[in-house]
Design a protein that fits this description.
Radius of gyration: 35 Å
GO molecular function: cysteine-type deubiquitinase activity; proteasome binding
Helix content: 40-55%
Number of helices: 36
Strand content: 5-15%
Catalytic activity: Thiol-dependent hydrolysis of ester, thioester, amide, peptide and isopeptide bonds formed by the C-terminal Gly of ubiquitin (a 76-residue protein attached to proteins as an intracellular targeting signal)
Keywords: Hydrolase, Protease, Thiol protease, Ubl conjugation pathway
Pfam family, one: UCH
Protein name: ubiquitinyl hydrolase 1
Largest sheet: 8 strands, mixed
């Protein structure tokens, strides 16, 4: 919710003004301080000056619109010095404001904690609306331009421009249809290529702009050399169209409903294609009149509308009539919550409500069977240019003359475009009223839907059941409705209705499954005869299943009264146990949770149960026997019912599995996932890629990031789990199987696809390529010449390392351990529930330091493994859950050590629950802390065992949070209640404990990641020295060894700088010695490999080119040389005692190694061999510079190398030691490598 006018959260007005000024300047750097201050004071006269979204929105819009109108020619960001660009050049998103929260800078992070949703953008201290969507070509989105180089095996990503993940996801989904891309590329006539567009009705000018911008965006996505691009002005055009119906809600900087926006965008694009087809057929039409060229950008009439040209009858402003009915004849499901307006919406393919639009489908034309001609026929046939305007002003460039004739090629192009669009998207639905037996009566109604989109209710659990529910429905008046399709398109969308705003106000998180292959025959009218018979059989089986289910429920849920039920088998078992005197008493609870009134001074002696004998109860033995027979009968009946229901369910699920209903096959091609709640959260897309050679792989398109994932992983995220903390699919795209004409564009080579583009798009592609190459070359030059750095003394990494942390108040010095009760791990203190007292909170500076540290580590974790966790909170949850699962886990401890079956714990057994709960918290750690494989693997145990000076409430918080686990049943609910109580009682809503736990989890995970990459390096070295003979394999193995060593070194050094205050070296798992040894071994082996090529006339540097097996990426010579240079540079720093190198604890004399390598490089550079090959001399000189020149400054950053699967810390350390033993003495291997290098460089140059 936005702030109310007049509210303020900052008492120091100077500090508030400084925050506002800093935030505006960060987003709009071209605006002067004076202009911003003037705006602040202007709005301060009518509103309280504050750093809230409410006030900053006013200042932002004032600066953006007013200032840019006066300074049209200015670009945003650093123009002449891109190297000085901010490292955080991305725009910021708008964030809701909680007026109760005391700290502005913490608000967004609080939303993460409370709502468990994913950030759409990088962190920022102040969140603002999206900045101008246009930008200079020099604008930097990535500090390292090398990292912007695209992997051509992956789809181009899209930059998040402030809550624009919905647009990015939809764009990626639509882009995945090659034929649709081709239609957009070739639809606009040449008369639209000069602005302003005059060959279009004023009402559709913005639609025409949208079409031009989408085709340009698709061309950039296909041919961009950058890993991600920015959508730019198209977002503002979408906003114009969205707000043209009078709504005040902007789409810019705000989250939108992806399903609704898909329908709107497709309708706008359909309108624009209609307008383009009309322009092709009527090139003489112009909306320009008199002395003023008036182009409308809204649905309002232009000022000169009384004299503007009018369209012939074929060009309609309203929707073309394409169906025999204007309204669906069956009742719709509930409306979506985010519908942009409150007008009555139109219906989708099943009658579900969707936003209203003036367009339903492209006018029906005679079918054209041939594929669309993607050649630029309208441009080949004539030299047509935009029409000459008689009112042209002096000094304006005179357009070329236009041939306004319409030839056969143009007619053919228009027809092919129209028919291709219909073939892709258009469906015809027949709606009938039917009797109970399935026979129809009354008039059939037909509707045409373009595009075809099914709105499916996720409560049905799977796609086919949801489709059936929309096919067969019952109106409120009891009339049965059947919706069957006469025709289906090549692609259709499924919108999973997860937002029921008008019913519950919450997102529906139900699990919903859908197949990868789908047969749609049962929903076609032509298959009604056979599907009708099968449906009757289906209804009979379902009725039979319902009867069996009722019987089973009668056994398992017998009513007790007051809304409670009991399992009859359990009831009889209980009676049998009681009458058999199985339990005579129960000991008292260790710590009762509550006392009844009047029992305060009574001794707690537990429970005594009644004792039954034959003397007191004649016939007791017979009764027990009869009870046992009843139990056996009930169990047998339950077993039979379960088996019958399984058989019926299997029959129901396979009833349509007949050959006659397997002719219209569709395949899942893309899906959009949503994580979050109503009006907040994050979208991303999964898309299927099929290469020319038939290889299939799924991509995760998460804004700018593109990663390859397995479908098993997709299923875990897409189906949903029922938990509000897990993502779920929201939109599905199915494509017709075997429709080669639809996907043919993806099977073209790069040059073929580029040649098929219209000439204007080819020019755009070449322009963007030249701009990026210029930026890349400028960046590379800046890395070579750095005269402003006389001496390099520390590693440079991006983003910059946070300052070294000092001791926090929750991690005490040794002296404090004896004076602070919260720092004394006494069992009685650990027993104190977090919701029973005021847990100390931390100051803003400590919270900010921890957030910065977490964010820094999170960037590194996601860079190396972007698909592991969707958010930093998920990372924490994953490590907390490890405490409960597996061998020696919490669940096993509870059931073995406490002799308690978790499944038998009942919610009303409060004393027993409390006893087990407290025993686990106070005793579990002590039981497993001595087990190395546990405390090096389980995060919570690791923290307690390795950090004995930690604040005791943190220990309890971690243990309680780890118990919030479905496997712990009522214990998990008990833990959740304590955490909720702590958050309610805490003055910072639990932020203190969450931040501590989050940072420690990231430190733990980064330590594991560092050890894993060190292990990869050592394993690669073991393979190289012990196993390999093939030269091509040796190259990749050595490259992996260098990358693994470098990543381990960067991660380890980062950890030591930010976690030094913990004073526990064992938390890093690996040692500096481990890293130094593998770094030097990998360096020398790789160095020898390159030197052998440099000193051999018959060898060429391109001999090092290989294709990496794990990524398919081409590894070039320069990639290998770059990593060798980084290794040489590292040896240079270690020889000077930098980056943690301690000569007293090292296996290697770095100073001596530095001298030896320097001498060898001097010899190589001066040898006769280098005189004959400038390319080889360049490589040798570069390596010499890396080792000896203080001005050399390589990009010492993380690199994605071989696939890295994390194991436990203990396992990683064990494997490293195993590889070290296998390789042998490190110093001996180093000496052998140096000897080989000497032998190579002293050999004659042959």
């Amino acid at each position: 919710m936005d702030d109310e006018p007049g509210t303020s959260r900052d008492s120091n007005i100077d500090l508030v003004i400084a925050k506002v000024l800093e935030g505006i300047k960060e987003t709009l750097p071209h605006v002067t301080d004076e202009f911003i201050m003037e705006s602040i004071h202007k709005h301060g006269r009518t509103d309280t000056i504050s750093a809230t979204e409410h006030f900053m929105n006013k200042v932002f819009h004032d600066c953006f619109y007013s200032y840019t109108d006066e300074d049209q020619g200015k670009t945003f960001g650093p123009e002449r010095m891109p190297e000085m660009a901010s490292t955080s050049s991305e725009p910021m998103e708008v964030v809701p404001y909680d007026a109760k929260h005391p700290n502005v800078t913490n608000q967004y992070e609080e939303e993460q904690i409370k709502k468990a949703m994913l950030n759409s953008l990088n962190d920022g201290s102040i969140r603002l609306p999206v900045p101008p969507l246009s930008y200079s070509p020099n604008t930097n989105f990535c500090e390292n331009e090398e990292e912007m180089i695209r992997d051509w095996n992956k789809t181009t990503g899209l930059l998040n421009q402030g809550n624009s993940c919905w647009f990015n996801s939809l764009t990626q989904m639509l882009y995945s249809i090659p034929k649709f891309r081709s239609i957009l590329h070739h639809s606009p006539p040449i008369t639209w290529h000069q602005l302003p567009i005059v060959n279009v009705k004023p009402k559709f000018v913005i639609h025409a702009e949208l079409l031009l911008q989408f085709r340009a965006l698709f061309a950039q996505m296909q041919f961009s050399e950058e890993k991600f691009i920015r959508a730019g002005e198209i977002l503002r055009t979408v906003d114009k169209l969205y707000t043209s119906n009078g709504t005040n809600q902007s789409t810019i900087g705000t989250q939108q409903d992806a399903s609704e926006m898909l329908i709107l965008i497709m309708q706008w694009l359909g309108d624009s294609i209609d307008a383009a087809m009309y322009a092709h057929e009527n090139p003489e039409y112009s909306n320009a009149v008199d002395d003023n060229l008036v182009i409308s950008d809204s649905t309002d009439q232009p000022a000169n509308s009384d004299v503007a040209g009018t369209a012939p009858p074929g060009y309609q402003e309203e929707a073309p009539v394409v169906s025999s009915t204007t309204k669906s004849s069956f009742e719709p499901p509930e409306s979506r919550p985010n519908t942009p307006t409150e007008k009555e919406p139109i219906r989708d393919a099943q009658g579900a409500r969707i936003p209203k639009s003036p367009r339903q489908s492209i006018p029906q034309l005679a079918p054209v069977e041939e594929a669309m001609d993607t050649s630029d026929v309208s441009r080949k046939s004539s030299s047509s240019q935009p029409p000459v305007l008689e009112n042209q002003k002096d000094g304006e460039e005179e357009p070329l003359p236009v041939d306004l004739t319409v030839n056969e090629d143009t007619v053919s192009l228009v027809n092919n475009l129209k028919q291709s669009y219909k073939k892709i998207f258009e469906a015809t639905l027949t709606t009938s009223t039917i009797h109970q037996d399935g026979s129809s009566y009354g008039q059939e109604n037909k509707t045409v839907h373009c595009p075809a989109s099914f709105t499916l209710q996720v409560e049905y659990g799977n796609l086919h059941d949801a489709l059936e529910a929309s096919t067969f429905s019952v109106r409120d008046d009891g009339v049965n409705i059947r919706n069957m399709y006469e025709t289906l398109p090549a692609v259709f969308f499924c919108s999973l209705s997860r937002f029921q705003f008008d019913r519950t106000g919450e997102k529906v998180h139900n699990k919903f499954t859908f197949p990868r292959e789908l047969f749609m025959d049962r929903y076609l009218k032509e298959c009604l005869e056979i599907s009708g018979v099968l449906r009757k059989e289906l209804l009979e089986k379902r009725h039979e299943l319902s009867l069996n289910r009722a019987k089973l429920q009668g056994v398992r849920s017998y009513p007790l009264g007051n809304g409670k039920t009991i399992n009859l088998i359990d009831a009889f078992e209980t009676v049998k146990n009681v009458t058999s005197n199985m339990r005579l008493s129960e000991p008292p609870s260790i710590e009762p949770s509550k006392r009844e009134e009047g029992t305060n001074f009574l001794e707690n002696t537990g429970k005594t149960f009644p004792y039954f004998t034959e003397e007191n109860f004649p016939g007791l033995s017979s009764y027990i026997e009869k009870t046992n027979e009843a139990i056996m009968t009930l169990k047998k009946e339950e077993s039979v019912l379960v088996k019958e229901m399984e058989a019926l369910q299997e029959k129901i699920s396979s009833i349509h599995d007949v050959d006659e209903l397997k002719k219209h096959k569709y395949e899942l091609h893309a899906m959009i996932i949503h994580d979050g709640e109503i009006n907040r959260g994050h979208y991303w897309t999964y898309k299927l890629n099929k290469s020319i050679d038939g290889k299939e792989e799924w991509e995760k398109l998460n804004d700018r990031e593109t990663t390859v994932v397995s479908y098993d992983q997709i299923e875990k995220e897409a189906y949903g789990t029922g938990s509000p903390h897990d993502p779920s699919a929201y939109l599905l795209l199915y494509v017709q199987s075997g429709a080669d004409w639809l996907m043919a564009g993806d099977n073209e080579t790069h040059s073929e696809s580029l040649a098929n583009l219209p000439s204007d798009l080819q020019s755009l592609v070449h322009q963007k390529s030249a701009e990026f190459k210029t930026r890349l070359e400028n960046f590379r030059q800046r890395q070579i010449v750095r005269t402003d750095l006389p001496h390099i003394t520390q590693m440079v990494d991006s983003p910059a390392l946070p300052k070294s942390l000092k001791s926090f108040s929750w991690y005490r010095g040794l002296d404090d351990m004896y004076h602070d009760v919260n720092a004394n791990p006494d069992e009685s203190i650990l027993r104190d529930r977090l919701d029973s007292y005021q847990v100390p909170v931390l100051g803003d500076n400590e919270i900010l330091d921890m957030k910065n540290t977490t964010s820094f580590l999170w960037n590194k974790i996601t860079f190396l493994d972007p698909s592991a966790f969707v958010s930093s909170e998920k990372l924490l949850e994953a490590h907390l859950l490890e405490t409960i699962d597996g061998e020696h886990g919490g669940k096993e401890y509870i059931e073995k050590n406490l002799s308690c079956s978790i499944n038998e714990l009942k919610e009303d057994a409060e004393n027993e629950i409390e006893s087990v709960y407290n025993s686990f918290i106070t005793n579990y750690i002590g039981t497993v802390a001595h087990l190395k494989k546990i405390y090096l693997s389980r995060f919570v145990v690791f923290v307690v065992a390795q950090l004995p000076r930690i604040h005791v409430p943190v220990i309890r918080y971690l243990l309680v949070r780890s118990m919030i686990h479905d496997k712990l049943g009522v214990l998990g609910k008990h833990a959740k209640k304590e955490i909720q109580g702590y958050m309610e009682n805490s003055s910072d809503s639990g932020n203190t404990m969450y931040r501590i736990a989050e940072m420690l989890a990231h430190i733990f995970h980064t330590s594991l990641l560092s050890a894993a990459h060190c292990r990869i390096s050592w394993e690669s070295l073991e393979v190289f020295f012990v196993e390999l003979n093939q030269s091509r394999e040796r190259i990749e193995t050595l490259y992996n060894a260098m990358i693994g060593a470098k990543n381990a070194r960067i991660l380890n050094m980062s950890l030591r700088r930010i976690a030094d205050f913990l004073e526990q070296p064992s938390i890093y798992f690996i040692t500096q010695q481990d890293i130094e040894d593998c770094t030097v071994l990998a360096l020398l082996a790789s160095f020898r490999m390159v030197v052998s090529i440099l000193m051999n006339r018959a060898c060429h540097l391109h001999d090092l080119h290989i294709t990496l097996t794990h990524t398919g990426r081409t590894l070039l010579t320069e990639n290998i040389v770059e990593e060798i240079c980084i290794g040489l540079y590292t040896v240079h720093k270690w020889s000077k005692g930098l980056e943690g190198h301690d000569p007293a604890n090292s296996n290697i004399n770095m100073k001596e190694l530095f001298v030896l390598l320097s001498n060898k490089l001097d010899f190589i550079c001066a040898s006769d061999a280098m005189e004959h090959d400038k390319e080889k001399l360049s490589v040798a000189s570069k390596m010499q510079t890396a080792l000896t020149d203080n001005l050399f400054h390589p990009l010492d950053t993380l690199t994605v190398g071989a696939e890295c699967e994390l194991d436990s810390g203990e396992s990683e350390m064990t494997q490293i030691n195993k590889s070290r033993i296998s390789i042998g003495n490190t110093q001996s291997k180093i000496n052998a490598q140096l000897a080989d290098i000497v032998a190579v460089i002293t050999s004659p140059y042959m």
